[in-house]
Fold this sequence. Notes:
Blueprint: E1 2-6, H1 7-12, H2 19-42, H3 47-80, H4 84-99, E2 106-108, E3 118-121, E4 124-130, E5 139-144, E6 151-154
Parallel strand pairs: 1-6
Antiparallel strand pairs: 1-2, 2-3, 3-4, 4-5
Helix pairs in contact: 2-3
Amino acid sequence: MTQMWTYTYFGNHTSNQFDWLRYGITGVVILITMGLLLNYLRHRNNARNRDLLVLSLLVAGLAVAIQISDIQQNYQLTNSGNSNSLIMRQFMRDVAKKKQVAPDQIAANQTSLGTGLVLKVGSAYYQVTFNNDTAITTYALTKNTLLNHKVQLIKE
């Protein structure tokens, strides 16, 4: 069975799926840190409270630093166009425009551009040939036939 990723799949995977989970964990760590700070301010003589506060501050600082790094990286990927999902969506939109079909009717057998890429456009299959795999500037579509017609479309 051949797996093919649809245009919708690439739209759903342009950003990291676990962003909200990481934001939630960071928020919980910050809340715990604030609770430990209040507990330390009430019981200043207890060394255990101070040690827990210092440890919590270190974990919170690390979590915030990771979040800032990820936000900067996502911003750079989005603005530079280096994200595989963004490039694949742009490529699929271009092919859809040239073949006069909706982008939702296109699927690819790979998640990134390169040698061996086969596109399903409507009910037809095309082999994609690029001029150069490192700096892709042009491509050619050659009509193809699959030996195994069992295709699993991955939409999410």
